[in-house]
């Protein structure tokens, strides 16, 4: 079968012919229906500081946002059956696309402890995006951000993660303000219930925001969040648009700001995302592409021209 594989930083993905996987004891094989594209893959291709998981072997099939249908069950697996619709949570040491071959192909193996059942009615494209973009946004807002009804929330970036995070905050009953540099995306804020959108989070300095979640992470956005959130407020850092930021430690200390970093989430977060998706109240903007378009999709991600989340539809 075909697979888009990572070989080396600063080199394009290679379309390789690889063996069909089989289920070893304690594993299942999943027929991939959809695979989300993520900026982490762009990082691997462009930046040496984005490491693979320990023990990962190159060439490696990328794609860590995976949803599909179980087609084979190995020995010692009791709780899953052929035909089950599953998303693969990013838990353990060998997550797909980073520690083992991932979703930019047609089949992969997965451990049962990483599987989460996809509710009826949730399409595979949403389920795939939910495994990372959804989980990270959910964890950042609900767990790390501690957002509840009545919280005043700032969201930086209305891209693939930010739009999901903003919508989750709205569904939590928060009053949400969003910063997005692309004015052509501002209408999305209205659609998902954001109160106001501006180009920079500092436009909301008078709003006394309790929490700001930075889904962009371009250094200046982190600094602006620390300066803008209310005294004793909380800044949750998710985005890694730049890997360094210069911040005012004076503002951080004198205003007693809590700064929290977030990487991914838990299986419970993924279940929570799937539950909200199943209600239809969370309907993230997703652009679907074909398997052959994955390298071009990553190029578009690198250039910042994607609206919402990009997902490759692998099979019907």
TrEMBL record:
Keywords: Metal-binding, Oxidoreductase, Zinc
Cofactor(s) this protein requires: Zn(2+)
UniProt keyword Nucleotide-binding, yes or no: no
GO CC annotations on file: cytoplasm
Domain Enoyl reductase (ER) as annotated: residue spans: 8-312
Stored SMART domains: PKS_ER
Pfam families: ADH_N (PF08240), ADH_zinc_N (PF00107)
Reaction catalysis annotation: a secondary alcohol + NAD(+) = a ketone + NADH + H(+); a primary alcohol + NAD(+) = an aldehyde + NADH + H(+)
The keyword Cytoplasm appears for this protein: no
Assigned EC number: 1.1.1.1
Gene Ontology MF terms in the entry: alcohol dehydrogenase (NAD+) activity; zinc ion binding
The organism's place on the tree of life at top rank: Bacteria
Family: Belongs to the zinc-containing alcohol dehydrogenase family.
The protein's name: alcohol dehydrogenase
């Amino acid at each position: 079968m075909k697979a888009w594989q990572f070989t080396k930083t600063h080199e394009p993905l290679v379309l390789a012919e690889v063996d069909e996987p089989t289920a070893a004891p304690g594993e299942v094989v999943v027929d991939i229906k959809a695979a989300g594209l993520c900026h982490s893959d762009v990082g691997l291709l462009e930046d040496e500081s984005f490491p693979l998981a320990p023990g990962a072997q190159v060439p490696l099939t990328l794609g860590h946002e995976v949803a599909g249908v179980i087609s084979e069950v190995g020995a010692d697996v009791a709780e899953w059956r052929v035909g089950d619709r599953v998303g693969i949570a990013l838990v353990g040491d060998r997550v797909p696309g980073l520690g083992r071959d991932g979703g930019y192909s047609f089949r992969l193996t997965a451990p049962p402890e990483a599987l989460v059942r996809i509710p009826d009615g949730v399409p595979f494209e949403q389920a795939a995006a939910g495994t990372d973009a959804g989980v990270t946004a959910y964890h950042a807002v609900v767990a790390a951000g501690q957002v509840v009804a009545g919280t005043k929330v700032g969201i930086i970036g209305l891209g693939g993660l930010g739009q999901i995070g903003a919508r989750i905050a709205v569904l939590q009953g928060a009053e949400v303000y969003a910063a997005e540099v692309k004015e052509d995306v501002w209408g999305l804020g209205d659609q998902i219930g954001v109160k106001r959108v501006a180009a920079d989070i500092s436009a909301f300095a008078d709003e006394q925001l309790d929490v700001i979640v930075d889904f962009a992470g371009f250094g200046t956005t982190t600094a602006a969040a620390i300066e803008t959130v209310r005294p004793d407020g909380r800044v949750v850092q998710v985005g890694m648009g730049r890997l360094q930021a210069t911040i005012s430690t004076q503002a951080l200390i004198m205003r007693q700001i809590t700064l929290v970093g977030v990487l991914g989430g838990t299986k419970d977060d993924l279940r929570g995302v799937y539950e909200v998706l199943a209600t239809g109240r969370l309907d993230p903007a997703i652009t679907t592409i074909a398997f052959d378009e994955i390298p071009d999709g990553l190029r578009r991600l690198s250039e910042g021209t994607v609206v919402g989340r990009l997902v490759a539809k692998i099979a019907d």
